[in-house]
Amino acid sequence: MHSPELIVHHIPVCPFSQRLEILLALKGLRDRVAFRVVDVTRPRDPALLRLARGSTALPIMRTPQGVLRESLVILRYLDELFPAPMIAAPDPYRRAVEAMLIAREGGFTAAGYRYVMNRDRARSSAFRDAMLAQYAWIEDFLAWQSPGGVFLSDRFGLAEAVFTPMFMRFWFLEYYEDFALPAQGFARVRRWREACLAHPAAQQVCREEIVKSYYDYAQGVGNGALPPGRGVSSFAFAPHWRERPWPPRDKYAPATDAMLGLIAP
Ligand SMILES: N[C@@H](CCC(=O)N[C@@H](CS)C(=O)NCC(=O)O)C(=O)O
Fold first, then answer.
1. Phi, psi angle pair for 245, to nearest 5°
2. Residues in the ligand 1 pocket, defined by CB under 6 Å
3. What's the whole-number mean pLDDT along residues 178-198?
């Protein structure tokens, strides 16, 4: 069954839409859904806003029956619509275990984004501790549910599709905050994270694209808005991120458009 009616509107470097791309890649069904690119640095098309009932958050997915929002909802919809193979755990109990881990994704995501967006150097260590507390929770959960394994189950599944895009975005913490998991106490979550990052179905973005695109988040400004004194967003499509220099790692000394290789069209 070919379904050209399934259309996702997304921001290409967005972790929430990468979840959908990973799920489709795991199923070998990437071409069943058309992805339409939205430029987050430009005013949103009113027709798209109407589709999402005024919400600017992406991704949204158009289906023959109506519009769906929220990446976790769309993930489960796609998993059930194209059930061969199911990516969620097949057994109800294991699916519930998977759901316990997925229930933590919001707090995990928020801790990383708050940390990179913090502009008060004196508070950096508090944000680091909050991030480490999130990793410590996952460490404990995996040590409980899958102590000797790599993934939560015997394969890359739904929880991995949910968390891997965040592990990738958090390359911005390594770059702008020198954040690293401590050598002691995080072996299980480190094993999980490394296997997630290396999985062939999850290679839609790379570290360089993320570090360059998210520079403005490190300036405390998200979603394509402009930091003070700047004219071009780090999320701009042109010049292409590959053609721009790596941004300065010291986020407290703001760079100019020119230093970032950003030139107004
Ligand atoms: N909870 C939502 C979050 C979606 C979200 O925040 N998307 C960001 C892009 S990464 C966005 O659309 N930002 C632009 C905006 O909200 O205006 C989901 O899981 O789909």
1. -70, 160
2. 11, 14-16, 40, 56-59, 70-72, 223
3. 98
Boundaries of every domain in the chain? 7-81, 92-202, 221-265
What's the rounded Cα separation, in Å, for the pair 240 and 155? 35
Residue among 19, 223, 234, 235 whose CB has most ligand 1 atoms within 8 A, to mutate: 223
**Distance between CA atoms of residues 26 and 80, nearest Å:** 14
CA of 94 to the centre of ligand 1 (A): 28
* pLDDT score of 143: 98
Q: Give the CATH superfamily of 7-81.
A: Glutaredoxin (3.40.30.10)
Cβ within 8 Å of residue 15, ≥6 positions away: 109, 165, 166, 168, 169
Taking the complete model, does pTM exceed 0.70, yes or no?
Answer: yes
Whole-number Å distance, alpha carbon 16 to ligand 1 midpoint, is 7
